[in-house]
Amino acid sequence: MATSDAPLEIGHVALTVRDLGTVADFYRTALGLEPLSQDGETLQLGTGTRTLLELRRDPASRRGSPREAGLFHTAFLLPARADLGRWLIHAADTGLRLQGASDHLVSEAIYLADPEGNGIEVYADRPRADWPRTAAGLQMASDPMDYDGVLAAVEGSRWAGIPDGSVVGHVHLQVGGLEATEGFYGETLGMALTVRYPGANFFGAGGYHHHFGTNIWNSRGAGRRSPGSTGLAEVVLRADPAELAAIAARAGVSPDTRLALQDPWGTAITVAAK
C-alpha cells in the first residue's frame, strides 16, 4: 500500500449519526465493513482487527449543513485496481447510487454517500512510480475514469467484502479558508503540502499523495463548527513514536501516547501512537 510506510497516516474516522442501525447496515452491505466491537451507542466497523469507521449514535443531533466546515468524504483505499473493479460490479449489482468517478492521475476513485449524507470515496492507487510530477511537484487532476480498464482488471473474481489490507487512505475536509490549513495540517501535523488545486490544498506524509484534502468549494468563509451536529466527529491518526513527540512539541502540548487536537474550524484530530 502506498501509504503504509508513512510516519503519520489515517487510523479511522468517527461519525455522529442519528440512525445507527441504518447507517451501519449501509456500510456493511455497500462496502463490506464488518462489525468489530460495540459499546453502548458506539459501533466500530472495519476489516480484520483494524477499525476503519466508528459510528456514534445521537438521535437528537442537528443535521449538519453542506455549507459548514466538516467532512467532504472519507476515502477507503483498496489494495489493488482489481479490487476497485470488483467493488464497482458489486455497486451495480446491488443498485448503489453513485455520485461520480474520476481519474486523479495518482489514483482512480468512485464517489457516493451514506444514508445521512456523509461523503464516501472508494479508490485504488496507481503505483507510486507512475504518479506524474513536474518541476512544480506532484500533479493531480479530475479526469474521466477508465471504467473499461478498471473492470478488465477484475479477471473473473467477485467482490467478497472489503479486502484485508484496506485502509482509510485519506480524509477530505471542508474548511473555511485555505491559508489556515497550511498552519495546522502543514506546520503542526508536519505534513507536506503536496498539491495546490483550485480551491483546495492537499497534504501528505511520507511521500504519499495526500492523507488530507481541504477545500472551500462549498464552505468558503465557514467559521468554527457548532457542537451537536451529525457528520464528522473525529479523525484519528496513527503516528510513529518520534512523529508523535514532534507533533506534541509543535502543538505546544504535553507528550503522550494520544494527543487531542483541533483544526482551526473545530474538527477533532486525534493523534495516537502506532
Automatic annotation (TrEMBL):
Domain VOC: 9-125, 167-274
Record keywords: Dioxygenase, Metal-binding, Oxidoreductase
Coiled-coil positions: none
Residue ranges of the TM segments: none
InterPro entries: Glyas_Bleomycin-R_OHBP_Dase, Glyas_Fos-R_dOase_dom, Glyoxalase_1_CS, VOC_core
Gene Ontology MF term list: dioxygenase activity; lactoylglutathione lyase activity; metal ion binding
Pfam families with a match to the protein in the record: Glyoxalase (PF00903)
PANTHER family per record: CATECHOL-2,3-DIOXYGENASE (PTHR43279)
Protein name: Glyoxalase/bleomycin resistance protein/dioxygenase
